[in-house]
Amino acid sequence: MNKVLLIDDDAELTMLLQEYLVEEGYDVATDTDGRAAIAAAAGNTVDIIVLDIMMPRMNGIEVLQRIRKLSQVPVLMLTARGDDVDRISGLNLGADDYVPKPCSPGELAARLRAILRRASQPAAGVSTDTIRVGQLVIHSGNRSAEWHGEILELTGTEFSLLEVLARSAGQLVSKQEISKRAFGKPLTPFDRRIDVHISSVRQKLGLREDGQSWIQSVRGQGYQLLVD
Predict the structure, then answer these.
(1) Distance CA 223, CA 199 (A)
(2) Is the CB of residue 224 less than 8 Å from the CB of residue 198?
(3) Which one has a higher pLDDT value, 4 or 54?
(4) Cα(119)–Cα(78) distance, rounded to whole angstroms?
């Protein structure tokens, strides 16, 4: 049974979501203070955190920053509908996905299932083997990666994206194909999740000796992982 920590100061919404998720088979704990999420991440006591952005004491963006210094536990952000700034900030800081409020319990449950599936399984249609691309080593079986001999700290979503690009290293992979293989669903119009997550992976890989990014983009088409 997956353990979910739901952090939100909206008591009515929290109760509604908790009841629904429990019926869906989740073990759900709730809190109104983001510090509980930080403690859970540090103690590795939950499988996923649902984190509201607008909270007293410490907002969700600050909480997420602190979580990512401690853990790669999956985090789903609850954002104000139409607030692209908060959404992009959350994704840039390592959130796995977001759901705009007000949200339906069914939509939240679906997003949780998708994130947890990505965190525990290889990308769709790939085997549990080892991929080597230059100094990058992808271990699909345990979903870990090494870069120049060091562990590469990736969120579950970032790993899925990098795995897809590594399997087609040197080739352009369309954003639609990335979405299908990494997330198991087609890309929707105006969805910038892939772009933001790719930007985060780029930062973690750093630059090549020639100053270029290891992940090249072709505007409006897709991405390509360069090969030495």
Answers:
(1) 11
(2) no
(3) 4
(4) 19
pLDDT value, residue 128? 56
Distance CA 187, CA 180 (A): 7
Which CATH code for domain 130-225? 1.10.10.10
Helix (H, G, I), strand (E, B) or coil at 219: coil
CATH 3.40.50.2300 intervals, the chain: 3-120
Cα(78)–Cα(103) distance, rounded to whole angstroms?
Answer: 9
Each residue's pLDDT tens digit, 174-191: 999 998 888 877 887 777
pLDDT at 142 over 70: yes
Question: From 3.10.129.10, 3.40.50.1460, 3.40.50.2300, 1.20.1530.20, which CATH number describes the 3-120 domain?
Answer: 3.40.50.2300
Token couple for 132: 């080597």
CA 24, 77, 73, 129 dihedral sign is: positive
Here the contacts of 31-36 (C-beta below 8 Å, separation 24 or greater) are: 31/5, 31/6, 31/7, 32/7, 32/8, 32/56, 33/7, 33/57, 33/58, 34/7, 34/58, 34/59, 34/60, 34/62, 34/63, 35/63, 36/5, 36/7
